[in-house]
Amino acid sequence: MNGSFKSANGRAYVFTSKKNGWEKVITFASPMIHTKLLANNPNKRVGYLHWSIILLIALVIAHLIVTESQTKPALVIIRQLNYQLAMAFSWPFTFLLMLWIHYLTKKLDIYLPWTSKWVMRVFLQFLFGVIFVLVVDVLVVRLYFFVFDSDFEKSGYMQIEFIIVRWMVLFMNTFYIAWFFAVNYFDGRKINDELKDYIIFLNDQKEQERFYAQKIEGKLGNKIIQVELNEVACFEREENIGYVYLLDGRKFNMDLKLNDLVKLLDTSSFYQINRSIMISFAAIKGYEKVKNQQAKIILKDDLILDVSLLVSRDRFDGFKRRFEVFKLS
Hints:
single chain; 48% helix; 14 strands
């Protein structure tokens, strides 16, 4: 997760971050925080309806189309041969039309997402998702009437059944558009919440830097050396002797106890993993779980520390949470 601050209109600030291809923007304008989603991910896929659901909906619509102009009771109609023949044509054909809209929308979501190319997307969605479908419907139905030697113009199809088809096409397109924005709205809220927590962490980290020590005193023989904390790999305390290990391999003595270090150091950068070791997260590549709900620290490449790297059982949960937060910074 990467972030940066930019000024906006002189008194607002915008935090931008990209996660899995989605660009998130959080705008700060005192005294309220407003969140805004700029979804721009051509690879994001929305599931939409399963084909089996589409098949069932197509059955209902096909039945309405076939029976709309009939005055007989439904139980009588469905027993007639004409109804069964009409359904044998209308149901698969309606299903194919709906399936076309389904896959067309999914493809356009990838190549022409609503959030970045909406003008072209509106044009193509309307052209191929509405006009094309309705034209194909009329042409195929005309062919159906021609094959069965019926008069299309006198059938009243355009005044009755075609209206159902038209509303079906418009509704499915609208429903899928609403589905897309609903899914990405809730996904955006989730990412925004994560970014808020991250910003709070950054602000807390800046405040902590004012109070925590930035250097610590180390001893090498009779020499007193000021060690920058960002150079420290870990601290070790054995009985009455303390050591500080640096990332470059150097080692110094120190007088401070681990209890004193906990008060002096920024605990978002250091963590006491057992009774004798306080380690810097900058030295940690990861960890592996071992028996008895403990863990063993994996050091970064080329770093060797001759100390116990075992995270004790009672400190493991706290270490795991701190390590996850540190990875975000």
